[in-house]
Prior knowledge:
By secondary structure, the protein is an all-alpha fold.
Amino acid sequence: xxxxxxxxxxxxxxxxxxxxxxxALYALSTRPEVEPRHRRLLGILWVLVxxxxxxxxxxxxxxxxxx
Length: 67
């Protein structure tokens, strides 16, 4: 029996990639040897990736015909 909609693992993989990218930026932003200017930029970027990444992943997956 094939269910309607995308496979849940496919959706989860995209969200996992977004979360991993956000976590990597966060980890970089907390390193003590990073300049304060770059630390602030990395802090902004990890929040933006986390907030915008999920919806952008859904739009990209729909555009690619995955959904």
